[in-house]
Amino acid sequence: xxxxxxxxxxxxxxxxxxxxxxxxxxxxxxxxxxxxxxxxxxxxxxxxxxxxxxxxxxxxxxxxxxxxxxxxxxxxxxxxxxxxxxxxxxxxxxxxxxxxxxxxxxxxxxxxxxxxxxxxxxxxxxxxxxxxxxxxxxxxxxxxxxxxxxxxxxxxxxxxxxxxxxxxxxxxxxxxxxxxxxxxxxxxxxxxxxxxxxxxxxxxxxxxxxxxxxxxxxxxxxxxxxxxxxxxxxxxxxxxxxxxxxxxxxxxxxxxxxxxxxxxxxxxxxxxxxxxxxxxxxxxxxxxxxxxxxxxxxxxxxxxxxxxxxxxxxxxxxxxxxxxxxxxxxxxxxxxxxxxxxxxxxxxxx
Length: 350
Ligand SMILES: C[S@@+](CC[C@H](N)C(=O)[O-])C[C@H]1O[C@@H](n2cnc3c(N)ncnc32)[C@H](O)[C@@H]1O
Hints:
Helix content: 10-25%
Distance between the termini: 42 Å
Protein name: Protein arginine N-methyltransferase domain-containing protein
CATH architecture of the largest domain: Distorted Sandwich
Strand content: 25-35%
Bound molecules: S-adenosylmethionine
GO molecular function: histone methyltransferase activity; protein-arginine N-methyltransferase activity
Pfam families: PrmA (PF06325), PRMT_C (PF22528)
CATH superfamily of the largest domain: Hnrnp arginine n-methyltransferase1
Keywords: Methyltransferase, S-adenosyl-L-methionine, Transferase
Shape: globular
Number of helices: 10
Largest sheet: 6 strands, antiparallel
Order of helices and strands: HHHHEHEHEEHEEHHEEEEEEEEHE
C-alpha cells in the first residue's frame, strides 16, 4: 500500500500556468459554500452513498479513484464500505480541508489525497478498479468535467473496471412560463423611461437554471441523448439529437425545459440506484435548465413540437456550451396553419 499523502500541500499543477478561465473554474471550488450546497443536496449525495453500499461486494478490497474529490465525501464513503485504498484528486484548495476531514474521521491509512489536475498528478497505482466522480454540471455537460473522467477512465481504469455513475441522459419537454418570460423581457422596453430593448436578444440567448413547477410542463417528455460512460468518447459530447413531444393541453409553449437523469451500476438482478433532476423529481441543486423560445406557441392537446438540439463546447471557453434548438411546431385543428411555427434559436450557457 502506498504511503498516505494526506499531509502534502504541493500541487502537481502550477495554477499560475493555467488560463484565466481555468483558474477561475478551480477558484470557484475553493470556497466551502459550493461544497456545502453539494453535500446538502441529499438526493445527490445519498445516491452515491447508496450506490456504493449496494455494490459493497464489488468495492471490497478494490483500489478506487475519486475524480474531483472536493471535501472527500465520496472517498470516505468508498473507504468506509470496503475499498482497499482510495485516491482522491482535486485541483482546488478545498482538498486541504479534505485532508483534515480524512484524518479526523480516521481514514488516513486508506485514503491518499493528491492536489493538482487529474491530468497532471501521478497516482500511486498504475491502474484502479473503480472510478467514482461527481462531475455533472447544469444541463449535464456544462463545466465539461466529464472530459476529465474520460481521461481518467482511459488512462487508469482496468479493463472491465466500474465507473460510478455510468449512465447519464438528457431530457426535454415543453413549458408554459408566459408570466416570467414577459416580466423578464418587458423590463427592457422601459428602463427609467429609456428603450433598452437591444438587451432582449442577449437575454434570450442565455438559458436559465432554476426550479420549475412541474405543473408548468405541458408536453410529454423526450430523452434527447444518453451517455454510457463505459464507452462514450470525448467527441460524442458534442452532439446533435432529435426530439419530439406532444402538447398535453390547450396552453402556450414559451420554452423548453431540460434536465438529466443518472444511473449507477448495480449487482446483477438488482435495481440500480438512480436519480433524476427533472421538475417531476425531488429538488436537486442542479434544478432545471430553461431555454426560452423566440416564439410563443399556442398549442392544443395533441399538437407536436419536434426539432433538433445541437450542443458543443464553446470555442473560447470550453467549459461553456453552445446550444442550438431548431424547432418545428405542428399545430392541428382550429387555425392550425397559423399556429404552426418553425424556427432556430441559439444559446450560450455560461
Ligand atoms: C462537483 S465537485 C464534486 C466534489 C465532491 N466529489 C463531492 O461529491 O462533493 C467537482 C470537484 O472536481 C474538481 N475538479 C474538476 N476538474 C478537475 C480536474 N481536472 N482535476 C482535479 N480536480 C478537478 C473541482 O475542483 C471540484 O472540487
